[in-house]
Structure of Cobalt ECF transporter T component CbiQ:
Amino acid sequence: MGAGHAHRLYRHGHSPVHGLPPHTKLAAGFAFVVVVVSTPREAMWAFGVYALLLTTVAYAARVPPGFLLKRLLIEVPFVAFAVLMPFVAEGERIDVLGLSLSVSGLWGAWNVLAKGTLGVAASVLLASTTELRELLLGLQRLRLPPLLVQIASFMIRYGDVITDEMRRMRIARESRGFEARGVRHWGVLAKSAGALFIRSYERGERVHLAMVSRGYAGSMPVIDEVTASRAQWSYALTLPGAALVVCLLGWSL
């Protein structure tokens, strides 16, 4: 984890949010999502306040609305599932624009859309203000099991390596005149997938042997010790703290 690794979700900047230690942002994001999920779905106004809080964070982090909205498209499958719920759910039904919709399905769709969108938005904001290497250091600082942190680190490091290998194999096939046009070409693609698996496995074996030869004994050395002051913790926990107040009001009103 000593070398940086940029990712497409990250947006370089020097905002106060970018400058926070990664483990404070991870804790704040997780706490915010827990509060949002704990909010009763009937308190519709509360979700509007949550959206306003995230908008404030995005403004403080100098993340453009277009950047955020474009990356929210990842939740499209969940939106499709939510749209179907009023049609397939059972129970009391009402007519809306000539369509017979389930009341419980409408509430369920709203619950999924509201909480899912807020959770994805919070995750996108976290990723856009924190580099992958910093996220791993933050997880390590939060005492996540070291083995899980190492697995995540290797996935990040070698995901692009495998992707590049797939690209080279595709170019090699196309240079030989191959173009997948139907089911009869699936055999070639399956063989390519098998070859990619074998190459990836062999690369993993070589990497492991290289690590062992350099003294690896099951744990990675900590190069950067990430710490946070009380003021930084207070600043980071402002978001979940404000959300908690809204959640309590949602249950009491």
Remarks:
- The mean pLDDT is 87.
